[in-house]
Amino acid sequence: MIGHLRGKLIVKSPPLLLIDVQGVGYEIEAPMSTFYQLADVGEEVFLYTHLAVRDDAHLLFGFASEDERALFRHLLKVNGIGAKMALTILSGIEADDFAVCIREGDSIRLSRLPGIGKKTAERLIIEMRDRLGDFIGTRGSGGDIPQTSSANQAVDDAVSALIALGYKPQEASRYVHAVASTDMDSEEIIRQALKASVSK
Description:
The chain is built from ten helices and five strands, in the order E-E-E-H-E-E-H-H-H-H-H-H-H-H-H. It is of the alpha+beta class.
């Protein structure tokens, strides 16, 4: 089992990462909550990891904190929640906000996340209520976000990232263009678009 990785960040393209660890490149999928806290490409990063072994692939998932990884693992135990949907949940809502939704039975807000219908939201509430204490903790608020993309490229990257997270192309474009401005990079646009998508 691979518990964590420390190495040079080579590729940073939501939701995919490529990290070089002593000459070996690890492909990792990560939620946007982790992307917000990553260093620039070329710098050293440290991620807690979860290895999923399937018949056709070994998939590695990365997280900025142990809390994120714990929540991801708890989500995988919920009936009908796979790795992709768990990443979408982590990308679309902060852990503390997720806990509030579970405690208050707020299925309406949860169902606004892409791929989460009313029945899935209700199942999350039922199955996650007794697990909140295991993963809710102190999480970082994220580091500086590099300003590296042009405005148009940032918008395109943000739309692509939302589509990869499960949003329909028209939805992704609508949310991105609703929040994007010329002084925002792709990660900030994604952050604001995800907030907008679950707050309406």
